[in-house]
Design brief:
Blueprint lengths: L6 E10 L5 E10 L3 E7 L5 H8 L7 E10 L2 E2 L5 H4 L7 E4 L3 H4 L6 H12 L5 H14 L18 H13 L5 E5 L7 H17 L3 E6 L2 H7 L2 E6 L2 E7 H6 L4 H10 L14 E14 L7 E14 L3 E5 L6 H8 L6 E8 L4 E3 L5 H4 L6 E4 L3 H4 L6 H12 L4 H14 L4 H4 L9 H13 L5 E5 L7 H18 L2 E6 L2 H7 L2 E4 L8
Parallel strand pairs: 3-8, 3-9, 6-7, 7-8, 13-18, 13-19, 16-17, 17-18
Antiparallel strand pairs: 1-2, 1-4, 4-5, 9-10, 11-12, 11-14, 14-15
Helix pairs in contact: 4-5, 5-6, 14-15, 14-17, 15-17
Length: 509
């Protein structure tokens, strides 16, 4: 970088409380105006924690041991919490990895913008705030949605929520933008749109952007410079072309190799063991109204599919097409179902479309779900081993010691070190580690079906390959059925026996 960086970070170290368990060691970062620096690395390498520590946004239990942070030659590392608030959002904005946890469930879309403008532009009147909100929504492709300002976070798809977060981050016209895995949960079309938008905004607004991602191939599309993290440290920093042409560190070489790896599924089993059968299935949800009756909005209309023993059915489509709605219905978490959804066990047929939720409770153990949002799916107050063993507490008579032993085995199966992970809280883990914990929990009861709702989306390429191989291995050993929800067509082509595309049924994406 020729010009002085607008944001400079050096000697940044983060640890768990007062312990010697270091999560980030001697992190360094320089961001120049009009440039995008991608921060890449495997899950758990410290990418997100390092950037959260820059503006003192760490979760309780984590502490910034040391740091030198300069913004426009102004030292920020010695400022108090009240002084830092003047810089957060207004000068340095952060787009978080987890959109559902970042949006207030009781605030409408416009109310979120109103909070930003009230805090940073108190001189604006209501009409001006609404006008600016609509302009920002238009920039991220959400303005065409009907009554978007009056909607709430739970009424948006994962991709729509992430785009809303990007609009909110840009609302105060910051000079620095830290984007933490903002394309993770998006389908390829929307993902490309967001990447193009970021690149355009970087140049038109002269933004300095830190783009955190586990996808080094995606980083190549957008970044001027790439910083590689491995085992809590920065191991390589170079301009994009040089890093791809002449990678220096083994961790960089591994990331590049993983990006080129395609996992292939084994031979298809005979279709003689029907486990799940959906016949003309339609799914709707209620939209409450302040005045009058709530109205039903149909998300899925007359979908039919079958899932056989030991096989994988992938459900793919754009954001908002209803993929996660199908997943929730199969797991017994959706209401207002028309048509049939039947689960075939050894000696009985369970009608999952029935309204009697009490009658369905004994059968919930046969279907486990790995949710799209790994952080929100784990209880923030429970240690990892208790989260993994929680299904055993509900459905078995195991002792505490037996549950701990089983949790240890499951954590090992999903590639985590129980000695390091078992007694941590979710806030002390990366997004990828949280998702592996969620997968371990889903395996606890040896279910007949595992519903994976974007289960690999939060993982880097290497971890995706490892978890995919694990799921396929478990499938072959236990004759598991996998209902695999994804926006990534290339990924599901390598692991699915059958694919159900919802593109023709997609709603607002």
């Amino acid at each position: 970088m020729d010009a002085a960086p607008i944001l400079s970070v050096s000697n940044l170290t983060v640890a768990v409380g007062d312990s010697q368990d270091v999560l980030v060691q001697d992190f360094e970062l320089s961001l120049g105006s009009g440039e995008i620096t991608a921060i890449v690395g495997e899950s758990g390498s410290g990418k997100s924690i390092a950037c959260l520590a820059v503006m003192q946004l760490l979760q309780p239990g984590l502490s910034r041991v040391s740091a030198c942070v300069e913004y426009n030659n102004q030292r920020l590392d010695g400022l108090s919490e009240s002084q830092l608030r003047k810089y957060r959002g207004k000068h340095v904005a952060y787009v978080f990895q987890d959109p559902l946890s970042s949006l207030n469930p009781v605030l409408s879309v416009y109310a979120h913008f109103n909070e930003v403008y009230t805090a940073h532009f108190p001189e604006l009147n209501v009409a001006q705030k609404k006008q600016r909100a609509m302009q920002m929504l238009a920039e991220v492709g959400l303005s065409e949605m009907q009554n978007i300002n009056d909607r709430y976070a739970h009424q948006l798809s994962g991709g729509q929520r992430q785009r809303l977060l990007l609009a909110l981050a840009l609302a105060a016209d910051p000079q620095v933008l830290i984007a933490d895995e903002i394309t993770t949960a998006l389908d390829p079309g929307v993902q490309q749109k967001i990447v193009d938008l970021l690149s355009t905004l970087c140049k038109s607004r002269n933004l300095a952007v830190a783009f955190i991602t586990h996808d080094i191939a995606l980083a190549r599309q957008i970044a001027d410079n790439i910083l590689v993290m491995h085992q809590s440290r920065v191991v390589e920093l170079n301009d994009c072309q040089s890093l791809f042409d002449y990678p220096q560190h083994p961790a960089t070489v591994k990331l590049l190799q993983s990006a080129q790896h395609n996992c292939t599924v084994g031979t298809s089993n005979d279709e003689d063991g029907l486990v799940l059968d959906a016949i003309d299935l339609s799914i709707a949800y209620l939209v409450p109204r302040i005045f009058g009756k709530a109205r039903l909005v149909e998300v899925i209309n007359n979908i039919s599919f079958k899932l056989f023993k030991g096989q994988t059915l992938a459900v793919v489509g754009k954001s908002g097409s209803g993929k996660s709605t199908i997943a929730r219905a199969v797991a017994g978490l959706a209401q207002h179902l028309d048509g049939q959804l039947n689960l075939y066990l050894e000696n009985e047929v369970v009608h999952l479309h029935q309204d009697d939720q009490q009658a369905l409770r004994p059968y919930r153990k046969h279907i486990s779900m790995v949710f799209q949002d790994p952080v929100s799916s784990l209880n923030p107050l429970l240690r990892v081993h208790k989260s993994v063993s929680e299904p055993l507490l509900v459905h078995t008579d195991m002792t505490a010691e037996q549950r701990l032993q089983r949790a240890t085995e499951l954590l090992t199966e999903v590639g985590l070190n129980p000695a390091q992970i078992a007694h941590r809280l979710p806030s002390e883990l990366s997004g990828g580690q949280c998702q592996r914990v969620a997968i371990a929990r889903a395996l606890a009861l040896d279910p007949a079906i595992i519903v994976c709702d974007e289960a690999l989306a939060s993982l880097d390429m290497t971890a995706q390959h490892e978890i995919t191989e694990l799921l396929l291995s478990l499938q072959q050993q236990r004759q598991l059925c996998l209902l695999f929800i994804s926006h990534d067509y290339k990924l599901v082509e390598g692991i699915a026996h059958n694919i159900l595309s919802l593109d023709d049924h997609a709603s607002e994406g």
